[in-house]
Design goal:
- The complex is a heterodimer of chains A (about 180) and B (about 575).
- Chain A is of the alpha+beta class and about 180 residues long.
- Helices cover about 30% and strands about 40% of the residues of chain A.
- Chain B has a six-stranded parallel beta sheet with strand order 3-2-4-5-7-6, with helices on both faces.
- Chain B has three domains: about 170 residues, Thiamin diphosphate (ThDP)-binding fold, Pyr/PP domains (Rossmann fold, 3-Layer(aba) Sandwich); about 170 residues, 3-Layer(aba) Sandwich (Rossmann fold); about 210 residues, 3-Layer(aba) Sandwich (Rossmann fold), CATH 3.40.50.970.
- Chain B starts with a strand and ends in a 6-residue tail after the last helix.
- Chain B has 24 helices and 22 strands.
- Classes of the chains: A alpha+beta (about 180), B alpha/beta (about 575).
- Chains A and B meet through α1 and α2 of A and loops of B.
């Protein structure tokens, strides 16, 4: 099963190498990896998408935690989360397909960021399903080049809803 | 007052309580050695190869529990320490390796004797740092010692560029070090410990399986208490030998690939395994799918990654062995003696297994059997020596036939199985305990790998003793080739070179030899009594095999006890015999 893991690390020289070395050294799979600074300039956030059964994911999480520069590891797959990825797609269409390509971009609310007589470069941001879908639709029209950033994800905040029964119980207790 | 980086480094080492540094000078660390020239509170040991120096530091660390310190130069000096670093990583030995580096401006420029040591050792150190500014040096050293010795111990490398050790700054040694991303757990979860106690009270066929973690935690007292309160038999891994007295009636011997029959059968038939400071390594478990099919497993370990890695456990407890066992013993003691079984029938079963397949060998009246030498060493030293071994059959025989009663008296390379470890490790242990008897038991293959360290032993007048179990073969390899490769001894025969006695004498040590059984006792008594480094060459049976053995892929109870039927097997042949040629010089 695919898991998306966010890893908070010290923003120090060599940390990225250490984490990716851990994955390759132990034979864990990295499907995508994205890293960038957080609000605190001494701390970076890495988002890693990996594959494995429960036992393997448990090992990955524990091994990451063991690294001295890793501050916190969260397996977002177990929670509610928002994920995004950006892709830049350069399509090379025949003259008669240019309109169709623009229509697809429009449906997905993508932006055209470059345009030449033979190509369009499309910028699309969304969750992995949306990115996969637009690529699937554009492929028959002719994709010349494709680059993806890898997924980033953030946990959703829990909204605590209070039911009518709980409201009543609270009033009883506080009296 | 401003101090140079070199002076700061030496000051930091002294503040950390370092007494011995195993070193080899070179271009980029000359400034450090210049400061050491006047240093009276630190002993600097000049090794003859940085690998030897690193194994010495490991031997020192394993004998004392304190971190071993290595100081080498850049490039090849640093890369020569890598084998020792990986060995320390696998066996959780605390080590601080200080490597010189080319000046910061030259890093990445393919400078003379430059190597990306931080990159090379990233996967095999607990942590490593390249110090780029002399103002960060003291903090880096403090952090290095803290990381190396806390939690699950391990090697830490600090790379020191030449300009950093030359630069001057105000010296301030931090009192405490706090690393926000690193905080090992020492105290076990109270609820989990209670669970463990419940399991122990219920069990009918329990076994305690303890390893190196008990020694790292200094928990041998608590382990003994646990065993004696609960009357549970104890088996140890090769790294744990000495954590429970080898002569104790509840001791089952070592378990695993060359463990005793009754230790392995106890584990296989148990209904409860209490694992303390051990990691269910593949040499112990055999075929994982069939490991201890009826056992509930309690696993106490300071490293969460070891728990649930190979074997599913039922009561995991992350924590320091000493602290957890203390809490556990308290609960068990207060549960009242009535509920603690005597396990008489379990011990009776174990006695039966002992009778079925005891550790045995047939000593004739001429050719020396290797096991006989080990037993004689045990007798002559009265079980009181610090024993280091190299890697191979002799290592397994030492684990089987020498009974270790005290912790930190058996030093060997378990996880990585590094040949060439035994002799330098013995030297390191001797520096730790100059007045104790230290004996290295090595094979003829391993001893030659770091023999150059004999010069170190002679230079520092160390009374270290080396007993070579000389069968002219790479014994363990030859055994596997005999059993699984039809006796095709490919590249495992080494022949008569060198003459070890002459070699020892060339270095300035004493060399003795025994070629027949009747000579063994005399050679041992003479050798051990000499005040200085001694080499004893015991020429043993060339095709003796180490049993019991769990063949690769077999389960822990599927042991083999003797050579396959000789009549059905062609006699083993090494390549020279096969070619029918003559050995050319």
């Amino acid at each position: 099963m695919q898991h998306i893991i966010s890893v908070l690390v010290e923003n120090k020289f060599g940390v990225l190498s250490r984490v990716s070395g851990l994955f390759s050294g132990r034979g864990f799979n990295i499907e995508s990896l994205s890293v960038g600074p957080t609000l605190d300039p001494t701390v970076s956030m890495m988002t890693i998408v990996t594959q494995g059964d429960d036992r393997i994911i448990e090992q990955i999480t524990k091994q990451l935690n063991k690294l001295v520069d890793v501050i916190k590891v969260v397996d977002l797959t177990e929670k509610e989360y928002v994920e995004r990825e950006t892709a830049l797609i350069k399509i090379n269409t025949r003259a008669e397909d240019r309109a169709e390509a623009l229509r697809v971009a429009d449906i997905f609310r993508a932006k055209i960021v470059d345009s030449t007589p033979n190509t369009y470069t499309i910028e699309i941001t969304g969750d992995v399903k949306k990115i996969d879908a637009i690529i699937h639709l554009l492929r028959p029209l002719g994709i010349k080049e494709l680059i993806r950033t890898g997924r980033i994800a953030i946990a959703r905040e829990e909204i605590k809803t209070v039911s009518a029964k709980e409201e009543k119980e609270r009033k009883v207790v506080s009296r | 007052m401003k101090l140079s980086g070199s002076q700061i480094l030496i000051e930091c080492l002294k503040r950390e309580g370092v007494k011995v540094v195993f070193a080899y000078p070179g271009g980029v660390n000359l400034p450090v050695f210049d400061v050491l020239y006047d240093e009276k509170d630190l002993q600097v040991v000049l090794c003859r190869h940085e690998q030897g120096g690193t194994h010495m530091a490991e031997g020192y660390a394993r004998a004392t529990g304190k971190p071993g310190v290595v100081l080498v130069t850049s490039g090849p000096g640093a890369t020569n320490t890598v084998t020792g670093i990986v060995d320390a990583y696998m066996d959780s030995t605390p080590l601080v390796v200080l490597t010189g580096q080319v000046p910061t401006k030259l890093i990445g420029n393919d400078a003379f004797q430059e190597a990306d040591v931080v990159g090379i050792t990233r996967p095999c150190t607990k942590y490593n740092i390249l110090v780029k500014d002399v103002n960060d040096l003291a903090q880096a050293i403090k952090e290095a010692f803290y990381i190396a010795t806390s939690g699950r111990p391990g090697p830490v490398l600090v790379d020191l560029p030449k300009d950093v050790v030359l630069a001057k700054t105000e010296f301030k040694y931090p009192d405490k070090v706090y690393i926000r991303s690193y905080s090992p757990v020492y105290k076990g979860n109270k609820w989990q410990i209670k669970q463990a106690a419940q399991e122990i009270l219920k069990a009918k066929k329990p076994v305690i399986y303890a390893g190196g973690g008990v020694l790292a935690s200094d928990a041998h007292q608590e382990l003994r208490e646990l065993a004696e309160i609960t009357k549970i038999p104890v088996t140890l891994t090769v790294m744990g030998l000495g954590a429970f007295p080898g002569t104790h009636p509840q001791f089952l011997g070592m378990l695993g690939m060359h463990g005793t029959y009754w230790a392995n059968m106890s584990i296989h038939n148990s209904d409860l395994i209490i694992a303390v400071g051990a990691r269910f390594d593949d040499r112990v478990t055999g075929r994982v799918a069939d490991f201890a099919p009826n056992a509930r497993i309690i696993h106490i370990d300071i490293d969460p990654t070891s728990i649930h890695k190979n074997i599913a456990v039922h009561v995991p407890i992350v924590g320091d062995a000493k602290m957890v066992l203390r809490d556990l013993n308290q609960i068990l003691r207060s549960s009242g003696n009535g509920s603690l079984g005597q396990h008489k029938s379990w011990f009776a079963q174990i006695e039966e297994w002992k009778r079925e397949h005891p550790l045995a060998y047939e000593q004739g009246d001429k050719i020396i059997k290797p096991q006989y030498v080990i037993e004689k060493i045990f007798e002559t030293t009265r079980g009181n020596a610090i024993i280091t071994t190299d890697v191979g059959q002799h290592q397994m025989w030492s684990a089987q036939f020498y009974k270790f009663d005290r912790p930190r008296t058996f030093i060997n390379s378990g996880g990585l199985g590094t040949m060439g470890y035994g002799f330098p490790a013995a030297i390191g242990a001797q520096f730790a305990y100059p007045n104790e008897l230290v004996v290295c038991i090595a094979g003829d293959g391993g001893i030659i790998m770091n023999f150059q360290e004999m010069a170190t032993a002679v230079q520092y007048k160390l009374p270290v003793k080396v007993a070579i179990i000389n069968n002219k073969y790479l014994g363990m390899v030859r055994q596997w080739q005999q059993l699984f490769y039809n006796g095709r001894y490919s590249s495992s025969y080494m022949g008569d070179s060198p003459d070890f006695v002459k070699l020892a004498e060339a270095f300035g040590a004493v060399g003795l030899r025994a070629t027949e059984v009747s000579e063994v006792d005399g050679v041992l008594r003479e050798g051990l009594a000499i005040k200085g480094p001694v080499l004893m060459d015991f020429q043993v049976d060339q095709e003796e095999n180490c049993y019991p053995m769990i063949p690769a892929g077999a389960a822990i109870n599927e042991m083999v006890f003797s050579d396959p039927d000789k009549s059905k097997q062609t006699k083993g042949q090494n390549q020279e015999e096969k070619a029918d040629g003559v050995l050319t010089a």
